[in-house]
Every structure is written in C-alpha cells, then in structure tokens.
Prior knowledge:
Number of domains: 4
Mean pLDDT: 76
Organism: Aphanomyces stellatus
Radius of gyration: 61 Å
Oligomer: single chain
Helix content: 55-70%
Number of helices: 22
Distance between the termini: 182 Å
Protein name: Aste57867_14160 protein
Largest sheet: 3 strands, antiparallel
Low-confidence stretches: 1-27, 574-596
Structural class: mainly alpha
Amino acid sequence: MSETTPLEPVAEPDSMIKAAHSTKEIIPEVTFTCQVCFDPIAATNEVTNICNDSCPGIMCPGCIASYLKVCVQSAHRGILTRLNCPICIRPLNMHRLESRTSNDDRIDSTLDRFRSRVEGACEMLCPECHEPCNMLPEPPAFEHAIDSLTCFHDETWPTAFLNAGEAVAESCLRYCNHHVAANDLLSSLEGTVNGSFQEFVHELIGHIYDAERRATLFLALMKRYPFEYTPCCSRDVCFTCKRDGHHEGEPCNAYLPAVEEMAQCPDCDLILVKGDGCSSITCFCGYHFEWEEQVAKYRLKTLTIKVLTCPSKRAAFRRVASFLRDRSFRRKYGILVVAQIPSFVLQLKLTNISPVLFYPPWSTNFRTTLNDTMRRRRHRKMTARNRQLYSDLVVSQIPSAVAQYRLVQIRMAICLAPWVTTFKAALMTHVNRRRYSALVRQVPDVVAARVKSEMRVVFQTVVASIVPEIQSRQLRRLDSLFGSAPWSTSVKSALGSWVERRRLIHKYSAVIAEIPMALALRQRQASVVAMAQDQGPRKLSNLLDSEVTAAMNQMLLTQIHRQRYQELVATGLVDGKTTETMGGKLMQRPRAMSAA
C-alpha cells in the first residue's frame, strides 16, 4: 500500500449496527435524584442548568411546576415580580426556563398566568374607548427572542442591533440575564444609539421574551418619556399621570392627586387613589380595608418621611439615628460579649489550672481536695434549693393545717362533753316552746272559725228539719182543695199514707240527733280554750286532731241534710219562701244559744 493512498472509512456491517441499537435495551437508563423531592428521575426528564450554565440544580418537571404555581399565587397583578431559581435563589430568565422545560403543558400554562400578572403593571384605561389596554409592545416569538443569544454576529439578531454595535447588543444580553438594571441600560443606550431613542427601546422591548424584563424596561422608559399613544385608539396619553393628552411643559405633579387623597394597601403596599364610592375598598390583591383609616396612616407615613428627610431636620435625624445605633450596639454587646464573660473567665481559669493539676507528687491530693470542695459546694446549693422547696411546699401550709386540726379537736371535745346532752335538751325545749307559743296565739282565731262553721251547720240542720212541717201544710192545702171532689177519698187515703211514711222518716229525727252533738261541741270548745291555757301544747295538738275529726263528721251530716232539702224543693213539696222565712226566725236561736 502506498503512503499517498487515502484511507477510506470502513463501514460497519448491518449486524453490528443492529447490535448497537439493541444495547440501549440492555444498558440501564441513567437516572438522577431530584434535589427537592429526592425522587429518581430519568436523564431525559431532568431539568438542569436552570438559571445559568453553572447552576448545580437538578429538579424534576413536577417540582418545577409546583414551584412556579406557588410563585404565581404569590405574585399580584400589576406588581413586577421576578422568577428566582429555586436552587440558587438568583433571578431567572423566562426564556431559558421554557427552553429547559419544553413540552410540558403544566409549566406553559403557569408561565402564561405569571406573564399576564406581570404585564398588568403596564395597563391603563384608554380615554377614548374606556377599556383597559396594555401599553407594552407585542412579545416576540420564542425562536426570535434575543434572550438566549450569545454570539453578536448571529443571523437572528435584528438589523437595528447589528447597526448599533456590539457594545449595545452585549448590554441588552446582560440586561436580559439580570446583570444590568433598566436605568443603567437606558443611560448606556441613550448616548450610543443613532436615530430615535424611544423607537429603538420600543423595538428592543419587542425582541425581549421575559415578561418581567419587558415591563421593567418599559416602565423605566415611561419615567423619562411618559407621553405615549394607546394601541387600541391611538389616543395621546401621559402614562405617568394616566391623563388624556400630552401636557408639554407641565409637570405630572400638577395633575397627580394630593397626599391626602391617597392610601396604601396594608397587604401589598400598592398606592391607591379613590375617585368616588363608599369607604369600603377592595385592593387588587383581594385585601379589604377602610379608606379613611388607611388615608390617615399613609398621610402620617409621608409626613414622617418628609420631616426626617428635610434638610433643616437632617442634623437632628442624624443625632437620633446615632443614638439608636449606639443603643443597638450596646444591646448586642451586652448579649454577645458581656453575657459570655463569666463562662470565658471560668474557661480561662480552668485552662490555666489544668497543667498544674497533673504535676506530681501533690496532684492527687490537690485533685481530691478540689473534688471535695466542689462536692461541698454542690451540696450547699442543693441544700439551699431543697430548703426553699420545703419552705414553699411545707412551711407555707402549716398555718392552715394547724387551724384545721384545732377545729377538729374542738369539734371532738364538744361532741364528747357530758353537758352536750343537757344543752341539746334545753335548746330543743326552747325551740319547741317558741313553736308552740306561736300555735297557742293562733288558737282563739281557729276556735272562732270552727264555732262559726258549726253554728252554720246547726242552722242548716234546723232548716232541713222544718221540711216535714212544710210538707204537712201543703198537704192540708191540697186536702181543702180536693175535699169536695168525688174521687178525693181515694186520693186522700193514698196521699195520707205517703205523707205518713215521709213524716215518720223526717220528723225531727235529724234535729233530735244533732242537738246533743252541738251542745257537746260547745262544751268541748270551752274546754279546749281552758286546756290551752293550763296544759302543754302536746295535749292541745292531740285534742285539736280529735276536734278536726268530729268537724269532718259534722260536715258529712250537713251535706246529707242539704241533699235531702234539695230533693224536697225539686219535688215541689217545700216552698222556698216559707223556708227562707223559717230560716230567718231560726237564725235567732243560735245567737241566743251563743249569748247563753
């Protein structure tokens, strides 16, 4: 073979190619461990180099989606919020994150929500159509963005950036990666860009993919050049004061509301201005508060800042700050230094003593003496602590225990004394006398009430005994009426037999039986009064019980006579008027008896 003959690559046989393809199935797939959930993930699903090429983070798509969801929930609409790397805690470009987590719908939808909340800071109300419009230029397509470009001479760079020079492109890339602030970028571009500065910045914003970078640069531009046109109606507006028209030569402060008309949300610190409506305000973040209260707080805050930043008060503020700084230093010094001095001194003494303790021959005796001294010291401390504990748990309870013991002894002495029985008997006698004296004072009233009820019963009994006489009078009247009739003989004989039977039943039987009882009851009442004055209350109570029993029997008899009288009146054999007349005459008899 000659030396000039070129070597041709040797093609591998098909069998070797097939074997190489089949080794993927034999060799196990490489896996990594997620630094958040510590689950194994395949190399094809891992998310690495999250914020830059040197980022050590390795995460699974699920943890990335959960992290982004938390970021979206904590981001308020209209407030510029950055995405930070979950591992390095450094600002993260959204274009780089999407390139690392492509083909994941959960992450894409979460980033879309985050983008809409951040871009809300560039919205304003159009004075023409009165609809909210976003003043930001339209974002570029993912593949046409300059966020991930590294080489200046890349063909994907827009023509305006290529004409501006490599320094401008480098500044734009550093801004996209959060290495340069927006104001610094505008300051560097303002002197190097040829042509209209605002148009160049608008074109730059249109080629940046990250929503936070776009909104931050736009707001920084609006601070310098606030006059814009609404994208919906092309109406002249001032973005700073949100007014219609371009007020050339007049500052925006002339159109902004005063401090007295502004309030700050306690939750998200957003400055709000209220046009009209009630005092109950709901912020963009969902927090509810009262307008007057927050206006007063914000006014106090602004006045405080104004006083502290006033040039005439700056010297006093410096003295106050110096005093507070000195007090803070002393407090830290007392906590971190002074409090550690005893332990440091003790440690220093031990360090100085320890070499001496091990020198022979007296080291053993000295160590023993030192141990005994420390043991006695610990014993004294324990004894003092035990004494204090004994004083708290035992000595403080002695007075109450002694008082309780004395009460128990006095109670036992009283219960076992021989005079206790006599004292109890005398006490019970006195109590019974008090009770029975009250009963004796009530005896005259009770006796008078009972006499009145008995006299009423006697009267009712006498009235009931006259019923047969009244019936006989009525019969004689009927006899005189029907005596001349031819059938009077038969009627008279039948009526006479019936009257005779009734007369035998009712004639003076009840009166004769109850007169002795009434006299005996009268005598018994007199004897009750005399006995109540002479004898004890116990016999009097027994006698009263028997009197109550007799009165109950008398009431039953009276009820029976009353029922008989009502039956006679119902049959017509007794005249009610005659009974009333007789009752009036008979009322005099009980009075005469009572007078006797």
